[in-house]
Amino acid sequence: MPMTYKNTVALVTGASAGLGVEFARQWAGRGADLILTARRLDRLEALAADLESRYGVKAHAIASDLSQPGAATALREEIAARGLTVQTLINNAGFGSHGPVADQDPAQMEEMIRLNVLAVTELTRAFLPGLVADGRGALVNIASVAAYQPTPAMAVYGATKAFVLNFTEAVAYETRASSLRVLAVSPGPVSTEFFDVVGSRDAAVGRMATPEQVVTAARRALERRSAPPSVVVGLGNRLSALASALAPRRAALAVAGRALKA
User: Fold this and answer.
1) Residue 38: beta bridge partners?
2) In the structure, what pLDDT confidence band is assigned to residue 64 with cuts at 50, 70 and 90?
3) How far apart are CA 159 and CA 141, in angstroms?
4) Which end of the chain is flanked by fewer CB atoms within 10 Å, N or C?
5) In sequence order, what DSSP letters do the residues of the chain get, joined into one string?
């Protein structure tokens, strides 16, 4: 049945564009107040004003670059200083790059790992005890269909998303006795700014989804009587993930390499 998040607060990272904006809109539509964070404060403030006007909720904009050391701790402290308590955490911030590892910028690879892995881990650890104790919300971490097999030409990105998938499913099991719902969401390509950052459309394998389709799938998974620990969005992506699991490892690697033009 549809869940309500009225009288709860949802923290959405990467909320200045794409999936983050859509998560904020759909959670506001279910009555949640929002904490919106990303690097671009002007976009956050515009979104916050729109959500408050459209849905009658409170929306707080906090600029933060979660790829920087100490950023997750500083964000948690700023939220506490404002007297806010988080019931739902949506770890959406992340980025990828395309090309052989030998050609990648080491600083960019480190930034990707910090944002895609370390920030997700730190924020989950910081807020999880409160999420479990309250039990009215959810923990949602954005993985990717890239998490289900090695991804030549996107080796670091795929590995970070494999971490997010396995980490989230493990947390879901650890908290299974509580009423908190924990979900890893694995979309394929989504029509967002992601590929502008990647710098190549070669990474867009499969049918492009809209942010609304991805977030709606995530929300509906959370609303199931027995919510799953993870969901792959899109039939083609689910079949691809299943085929990767069943195929010999070398075969899955070769297929992914050809698909990503490695």
Assistant:
1) 63
2) very high
3) 15
4) N
5) -----TT-EEEEESTTSHHHHHHHHHHHHTT-EEEEEES-HHHHHHHHHHHHHHH---EEEEE--TTSTTHHHHHHHHHHHTT---SEEEE-------S-GGGS-HHHHHHHHIIIIIIHHHHHHHHHHHHHHH-SSEEEEE--GGGGS--TTSHHHHHHHHHHHHHHHHHHHHTTTSS-EEEEEE---BSSTHHHHHT-GGG--SPPBPHHHHHHHHHHHHTSTT--SEEE-SHHHHHHHHHHHHS-HHHHHHHHHHHTT-
Between CA 11 and CA 34 the distance in angstroms is: 6
**Residue of 55, 148, 157, 173 marked catalytic:** 157
The answer to whether the pTM exceeds 0.90 is: yes
CB atoms within 10 A of CB 111: 16
User: 39 vs 27, 75, 79, 110, 112, CA distance in Å?
Assistant: 21, 12, 16, 18, 15
Instruction: Identify residue 181 by its one-letter amino acid code.
Output: R
CA–CA distance, 2 with 4 (Å, rounded to integer)? 7
Q: Dihedrals φ, ψ of 62, to 5°? A: -130, 115
The per-residue pLDDT for 131 is 98
Q: What is the pLDDT of residue 193?
A: 64
End-to-end CA distance of the chain: 44
